[in-house]
Amino acid sequence: MDYEAQLKDWLLSDAMRMSALKLTAQFFAENEVEDWFIAAGFVRNLVWDKLHDAPASKLNDIDVIYWCHEETSIYRDKLIELALTEQMNLPWSVKNQARMHKKNNHPAYTSCMNAMSYWPEKQTAIAVKLDEYGELCVESVFGLESVFNLTVNYNPKADESAFMKRVASKPWFNHYPRLSLEL
Predict the structure, then answer these.
(1) How far apart are CA 128 and CA 132, in angstroms?
(2) Burial of 182 (0-12, 13-18, 19+ CB in 10 A)
(3) Contact, 49 vs 57, CB < 8 A?
(4) Which long-range contacts (CB under 8 A, 24 or more apart) does 108-117 make?
(5) DSSP three-state, residue 139
(6) The whole model's pTM is what?
(7) Would you say residue 20 has pLDDT above 90?
(8) Residues in CB range of 127: below 8 A, 6 or more apart
């Protein structure tokens, strides 16, 4: 299976996700930020829902990540969340990855992809965006195979206890019974 082509097909047929991508692409284009994505559960849950023949799961948040070293205040992220919410009432969660290394005690991140390489589970380090031509771009630090193979894997760059806490706090294994945990 061509995982990227399948994921793009699923995204293109999901009106909410495509609307969120278009809005976010427009916002960041207007603000001249090129390194941005919608990541994590926005993508991961879509794959797991489809592979389980389940209805679309409710998203707790829409994880918008971007990298901009010029302005790293939390206040800016909140303003972006507000601007996006005014256009589309979704639970936006915006984080500038240029500052998130401080919270996580990591070396400074150099890009969104670099930041995702530290996320606790590999299946969350997957992101999508629309490029300047409106084409879907899929990025995954660890490849798409594991999310399509229904596994949850620990990222060795991350803190193992943080990974275990996240896994314990998520309803993944109840909602997606075919998932397996691989340490």
Answers:
(1) 13
(2) exposed
(3) yes
(4) 109/67, 110/67, 111/35, 111/67, 112/35, 112/36, 112/37, 112/39, 112/65, 112/66, 112/67, 112/139, 113/139, 113/141, 115/65, 115/67, 116/39, 116/65, 116/141, 117/141, 117/155, 117/157
(5) strand
(6) 0.95
(7) yes
(8) 37, 38, 39, 40, 43, 65, 112, 116, 138, 139, 140
179: confidence class by pLDDT, cuts 50, 70, 90: very high
Q: Where are the alpha helices (DSSP H) in the chain?
A: 3-12, 15-30, 41-51, 74-87, 97-104, 112-116, 145-148, 160-169, 172-175
Between CA 14 and CA 45 the distance in angstroms is 13
